[in-house]
Amino acid sequence: MNWQWTDLVYIHRDVINASFEFAGALLTWMNVRQVWKDKGHAGIFVPAIFVFMSWGFWNLYYYDSLNQWYSVLATWIMVAANVCLFTLLVKFGKKRAE
Predict the structure, then answer these.
(1) Domain boundaries, the chain
(2) Helix and strand counts by DSSP (H, E) for the chain
(3) Which pTM does this prediction carry?
(4) pLDDT on residue 93
(5) What number does CATH give the domain 8-92?
């Protein structure tokens, strides 16, 4: 194997990026849980969630083309969370003021 220091830097960048993706995924899953618990939402602009969900699908292709496998894995978790969140937001709709 012909290993170089630049390989380590490349993996390091992938791990850092994957960490951000994974942190975003965890926070999105927390939103999924809250929307499920509340059976609705307030103060969320649903098209924004659609944009971030679409961006996640793009990132799956993009990170794969860069061979950033940690980022691909973390992005799958993020995409799954955004798909669930978007689905619940559409299903339950806006929560009415009580």
Answers:
(1) 8-92
(2) 3, 0
(3) 0.83
(4) 85
(5) 1.20.1280
